[in-house]
């Protein structure tokens, strides 16, 4: 976010919470994309995410009282809470903050009360992880302000636990992790079983990635997400009854016939096929990016979309339409990203195609759904950090 907006927010902070001798500190966390490895990060899979230059910023200052005060610029709302925290029925955005405090305290850190102002430009419900960014920036800001010295990797885990336990979405670790450790110009490959990771830099030559926001968010998103996770768990249990050597669904290497012999339901079978085929596509995409085989990468992205739509069933009419139209317009690869049920599509294409695709797709989407599309070019940026003003 630009420094002018940060400056205005600092004045806002003073107006809302009062100016004192101690200046609040400013922290920022990015949004994220994921190139490949979708819906595998709670099954021990490999994911290839990168941090991008949309962000959430918080100003934070200890307040020497028992009352935590949070102000959101987006909602133009101030909320005051004290321990023990409950989830907030009318201001759910505060749960991402209090959830993080609860998880830090569960680890033995005592978090004194503070004033916090939050602002951001990550489009909400777009699948770019605005909530994970709020969790990570809150955790990092608290850790730095009170000198806890918690490693960024551990802040990510705290954020995920806040989301799992306090907010109630049983998300994996991918979003919080990349938002914590991201690096300008690099994506990471993260093994979500061991949390080991490495940075990768890919030269895209005359190709580029960009995003298209479908501007829809279907409200079954969170419940369906949790349901998918349960289906994957029950599939694994049934597989393990016959093949105890498979420790996680991501590692299963059985044929369709062998899977059917494990008595999987139709849904469990489809979920398993998505997860195990995503493992193969992830390898192909990494190889393709390393060897500049961009059409191979693009093909795998289309295949992932197809599998997310048909096997994992987390797409929707709007994102399916975007991807199939892009394909017919000759784009080299595209797929929905994130949890699904709306949100953004990631596109890989030749740089000189952007304007033409933009115009044609906007027109046909508007005609079909009477909805606007947003196109975002982005840069790969750093993970969470303090901004010195
Ligand atoms: C959401 C979750 C992530 C991950 C993706 C799907 O973004 O927060 O943990 O599961 O969906 O890959």
Automatic annotation (TrEMBL):
The keyword Membrane does not apply. Keywords: ATP-binding, Carbohydrate metabolism, Galactose metabolism, Kinase, Nucleotide-binding, Transferase. GO terms for molecular function: galactokinase activity. Residues 287-365 form the GHMP kinase C-terminal domain. InterPro entries: Galactokinase, GalKase_N, GHMP_kinase_C_dom, GHMP_kinase_C_sf, GHMP_kinase_N_dom, GHMP_knse_ATP-bd_CS, Mevalonate/galactokinase, Ribosomal_Su5_D2-typ_SF. It is an enzyme of class 2 (transferase). Pfam families: GalKase_gal_bdg, GHMP_kinases_C, GHMP_kinases_N. Residues 96-182 form the GHMP kinase N-terminal domain. Its EC number is 2.7.1.6. Signal peptide: none annotated. Belongs to the GHMP kinase family. GalK subfamily. This is Galactokinase. It comes from Leptospira bouyouniensis. The lineage of its organism: Bacteria, Pseudomonadati, Spirochaetota, Spirochaetia, Leptospirales.
